[in-house]
Design a protein that fits this description.
Length: 621
């Protein structure tokens, strides 16, 4: 294996690799522009009937930049230098001891081609037309919705693998001094790629509610309804991407449609003046996978006027989405730890190394199911202070997960027991992917190094989570000097287990999160100051890379940001808003250079935008 810039290293020599700091040039979201238009109308037909219309149109344009294309995800494997090529190290360095009778594989960054730039254009259209009225003793509502989401993506400076391989083999592309290549040679290796997505929902709905009978606490009521919708989805990649010829991109086309029907009912029983019981149930049926029923019961008790005790229990589900059900095989460069592959590349057996992975869709997915219960109270302590406390407990079974390459490797070698059924050793004499072969690993006979992994979504395992939510609200009236409202929301997670493994205090699941909102209003002016807090967590990098010379911290610090906003309400029903998010320009908490996401910090917790000023004008008619 020849490294990028370490071309004198033998395949089984020192085992060093040349690394590229892609964070110096990449910016996943360098620019975002958002435009939206909202309209709402209501017309009273007569005393009993009215009609309404809601419409929203939004457009989001963005630009992102990624580092130049790396070579490892070439179609069929890493690029190689054939015997006799002008780029062959034995030809280029005849006295360095390279074997002129065998080809060499190459790891290379096509930096001379330039960064990968991606532009996106996302549009969403929402239209809702309905009627409210009364038929006999029933209050009714019915109508129809149309929701359409369109997404266009254009990517520049992506490498066509076959053309690059031919240029490397012929010597037309100089791998030793890429910047010295003529621009015409560089341009001949690249392509502009595109992706077009569309998701459409056509829905009809109807619901009614009616009073049932008198009870000690009031009138019992019943609400019921039905929905029907058609969903259509397409996510089409250009043919170079879908055929696996593009290096540096990931994903493949997916398309499908389905119909969904639902019926639901909810009843409220005021048993006593201070005791209410609520019963609800919903039935959903999907044309592509099956049906689910979601019942719920809740109780509300008011022992004194200022105190409410409440509890609920329910079951739910999450249907598999059309993209996961229908996705075509897609390439991805996956990072794994696999001893035979590391050793084959002259690296330590516990190294992290990129391999060729292929993600497959799964038309046999079932829905996730959940059980959840909660109990809590709401207390109006004084006329300026009220608070609520809620304990919650949730369990999700049959969760839909993307089984990763490392998990498949561990399952096949017996080091993991959390394994999906049907894993196998895949054939080595075919060009992947082969969806009919399912999930598994193909290894090179003899050396055992990984040729490719096929992975995908499946129903596997459980999530168990328990926690406490607290909410404190204050309200101070200063008469002519305005008013001040404060709200403190604290969410603490006691337990969060994924397949029996505790996740609390890991970089993805901090134990505590909190938001403090302060809002001061004086006449036509409003000022807001929000404080956002994320608790510190343990460090993943220190656990995965215990090298004392790297000196990774055992714990990551907490993260606190401040947002400011000022609003003026104009006499013509307009509002001018000026604000700044993350005023102090707080950077994300970095978890070493090799965190599990490969980005240096947990994207699910922190954003990389830094200080973000904004201006907004709102007009009410």
């Amino acid at each position: 294996m020849l490294g990028c810039g370490l071309l004198h290293q033998r395949r089984h020599g020192a085992g060093r690799r040349c690394l590229y700091n892609f964070n110096l040039v990449s910016a996943s979201e360098a620019e975002i522009r958002n435009q939206a238009l909202f309209t709402r109308g209501n017309y009273e037909i007569n005393e009993d009937w009215s009609t309404y219309f809601n419409a929203n149109v939004s457009r989001v344009k963005s630009f992102g930049r990624y580092a130049p294309v790396p070579s490892s995800p070439f179609p069929g494997g890493a690029p190689f230098i054939p015997v006799g090529s002008p780029n062959h190290p034995a030809v280029r360095f005849p006295n360095a001891g390279y074997d002129a009778t065998r080809p060499y594989f190459l790891r290379h960054r096509f930096a001379a081609l330039g960064n990968r730039d991606t532009s996106t254009d996302a549009n969403v259209y929402y239209f809702d037309l309905g009627f409210d009225g009364r038929i006999g003793d029933f209050d009714v509502n019915f109508g129809g919705r149309h929701v359409e989401s369109k997404y266009l993506e254009l990517g520049r400076n992506y490498v066509v693998g076959g053309l690059a391989q031919a240029a490397i083999a012929s010597g037309a592309y100089n791998i030793y001094n890429p910047s010295a290549n003529d621009r015409s040679v560089l341009d001949s290796l690249i392509a502009t790629i595109n992706r077009e997505s569309n998701f459409t929902i056509e829905e009809l709905y109807a619901q009614a509610n009616v009073d049932l009978f008198e009870m000690s606490g009031g009138v019992a009521g019943l609400a019921f309804g039905a929905e029907y919708r058609d969903e259509s989805f397409s996510d089409i990649y250009d043919t170079l991407q879908s055929s696996g010829q593009i290096v540096g991109s990931a994903g493949n086309s997916a398309f499908g449609s389905r119909s969904v029907g639902a019926a639901y009912a909810e009843a409220l029983f005021p048993v006593l003046e201070n005791l209410e019981i609520n019963l609800a149930a919903r039935y959903d049926t999907y044309s592509d996978y099956g049906s689910d029923t979601s019942p719920k019961v809740s109780v509300r008790y008011t022992p004194i006027e200022s105190l409410v005790l409440r509890a609920s229990y329910g079951q739910g589900f999450r249907a598999p989405t059309l993209d996961v059900l229908t996705a075509q095989p897609a390439f991805s460069a996956d990072t794994v730890t696999d001893a035979p592959t590391c050793v084959a590349f002259g690296l330590p057996s516990n190294c992290s190394i990129q391999i060729n992975g292929y993600s497959l869709g799964n038309p046999n997915l079932q829905s996730e199911t959940s059980d959840q219960w909660s109990a809590g109270l709401a207390w109006d302590a004084t006329d300026w202070l009220n608070m609520s406390v809620d304990y919650w407990d949730t369990q999700i079974d049959g969760r839909i997960v993307q089984v990763g390459s490392n998990q498949i490797i561990d399952c096949l070698d017996g080091s993991s027991t959390n394994c999906p059924p049907g894993l196998s050793n895949l054939p080595t004499n075919v060009n992947p992917p082969v969806p009919s072969n399912g999930l598994g690993v193909a290894r090179q006979p003899g050396t055992g190094e990984i040729l490719y992994v096929q992975r995908g979504a499946t129903n596997l395992g459980t999530i168990e989570a328990r926690g406490l939510d607290l909410n404190f609200r204050t309200n101070f009236d200063f008469a002519d000097y305005g008013s001040l409202r404060n709200q403190l929301q604290i969410s603490t997670t006691f337990d969060f287990q994924v397949d029996g493994s505790e996740q609390v205090d890991t970089p993805a699941v901090p134990e505590t999160r909190a938001v403090l909102t302060n809002e001061y209003t004086w006449g036509d002016f409003n000022f807001a100051w929000n404080v956002n807090y994320i608790d510190g967590t343990s460090s993943t990098a220190s656990q995965q890379f215990p090298d004392p010379d790297l000196d990774y911290p055992q714990r990551l610090p907490s993260w606190t940001t401040h947002d400011l906003q000022a609003t003026w309400s104009a006499p013509w029903n307009g509002r001018f808003t000026l604000g700044v998010k993350n005023v102090t320009d707080k950077a994300p908490v970095v978890d070493g250079p090799y965190d599990p996401t490969g980005r240096g910090f947990a994207f699910s917790l922190y954003d990389q935008y830094g200080r973000t000023p904004y201006f907004r004008y709102t007009q009410t008619f």
